Structure formats: structure tokens, C-alpha cells
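F.,

This is the one I mentioned.
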């Protein structure tokens, strides 16, 4: 316990590194979950409302993506952004934007899958009723979002939780570069490899507290909407 408190006192006064790592973690995961929601919610609603050839295959891909190993995502994004890859000219590898892309790939199937389940759980006559009142497609989607808002908050929480704690993919495409791409999870891995277990425990505690606080906020919003 003494060693833990000593490590805590040594880490917390380091705003330049610790605060930077924390802020970068929030930035990367925040941008990634925002993009995932903007893409995943409309996609989930579309799959929930429409029947077309190939829909079953797309749903299977979504369900598979919900359990996709992060290291596989990291490998895919690495090959995509490598100099010999199709997007190598953008020079995004080992930057925060490569990490954002990897996290988007991880979180989007979760958002799509939960949104799809939420839309299918609504009364099948609801969207027909909305359309009969003269609503446009955009108005229909917005109304369904409001009806399924509790499930969408769960999708937001699940997607964010899956990426804020992810390490394999961001390590592969970010490189864990000090001051540039080092986030909380990769910093924990680095401290553990160096034998600085007390520092790793402190960082892990901060990460757990961060995840707990954010999920408490999501839960509060969800329960408030329910009430």
C-alpha cells in the first residue's frame, strides 16, 4: 500500500505526461464512438426496417463484427494504412487518427447490432403509422431514435466501453509513441513490461475510475429517460 501511495504521489504531479495520456485517450475514444454512432445508428435502423436480397448476409457480418478480435482489426487497419497499402499515401499510420479508425471498426458493429435489435423490438406497425402521417425518411428515423433511445444509450455505453479499454489494435496502429500516440491502455502495458507494477496499478485504477464515471453518466441518462 505504501508503494502504491508513493507511486500515486509521483504520477499525479506529472500533468505534462499523465494528463496528456488521459486527454488523448478521451479524444481518440470520443471521436471514435461519435463516428460509430453517426454511422451505426442509421445502418441499424435501415437493416431493421427493410428487407432486401443480401440482408441476412449483412446481419451475419454485423453479428460477426460484434465479436471481432481487436488484434485482427489492428492488423487490417495496419495493412490498410501501411505505405504499401491502399491508403498509405495519407501517412496516417502511427498517428491518433489511425487509432480512431481502428476503434471505429471495433465499435461500429456493436452499435449497429444493438440498434438493429432495438428497432426490431418496436411494434412493427409503428413505422407504418409514422409514414402514414406524412413523415419523411429523416423524420421517420428521428422518431424511431426517440422511441428506441434507451437501447441507443446502451449501444453508446457498450461501444465506448469496448474501445476505451482496448489495447491490441491501438498498439499495432499507434505504436505507443510518447507524447503522440500513448494512451492509458498502452501506458499500462509499457509500465508492466518495464516492471513498474505500482505505476501500472495506478494507471489501471485511473482507467477503471474513468470508465466507471462515464458509464455512470450513461446509466443516469438512460434511467432518467426511462423515468
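My design for it:
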Amino acid at each position: 500500500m505504501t508503494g502504491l501511495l508513493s507511486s500515486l504521489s509521483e504520477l499525479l504531479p506529472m500533468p505534462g505526461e499523465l494528463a496528456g495520456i488521459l486527454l488523448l485517450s478521451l479524444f481518440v475514444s470520443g471521436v471514435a464512438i461519435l463516428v460509430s454512432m453517426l454511422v451505426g445508428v442509421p445502418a441499424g435502423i435501415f437493416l431493421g426496417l427493410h428487407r432486401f436480397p443480401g440482408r441476412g448476409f449483412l446481419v451475419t457480418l454485423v453479428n460477426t463484427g460484434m465479436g471481432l478480435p481487436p488484434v485482427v482489426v489492428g492488423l487490417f487497419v495496419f495493412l490498410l494504412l501501411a505505405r504499401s497499402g491502399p491508403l498509405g499515401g495519407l501517412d496516417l499510420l502511427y498517428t491518433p487518427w489511425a487509432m480512431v479508425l481502428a476503434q471505429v471498426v471495433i465499435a461500429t458493429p456493436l452499435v449497429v447490432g444493438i440498434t438493429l435489435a432495438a428497432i426490431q423490438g418496436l411494434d412493427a406497425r409503428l413505422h407504418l403509422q409514422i409514414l402514414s402521417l406524412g413523415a419523411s425518411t429523416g423524420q421517420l428515423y428521428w422518431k424511431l431514435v426517440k422511441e428506441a433511445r434507451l437501447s441507443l444509450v446502451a449501444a453508446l455505453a457498450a461501444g465506448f466501453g469496448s474501445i476505451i479499454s482496448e489495447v491490441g489494435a491501438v498498439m499495432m496502429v499507434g505504436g505507443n509513441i510518447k507524447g503522440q500516440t500513448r494512451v492509458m491502455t498502452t501506458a499500462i502495458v509499457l509500465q508492466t513490461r518495464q516492471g513498474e507494477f505500482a505505476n501500472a496499478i495506478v494507471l489501471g485504477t485511473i482507467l477503471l475510475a474513468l470508465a466507471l464515471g462515464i458509464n455512470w453518466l450513461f446509466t443516469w441518462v438512460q434511467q432518467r429517460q426511462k423515468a
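The two ends are 42 Å apart (CA to CA).

Talk soon.
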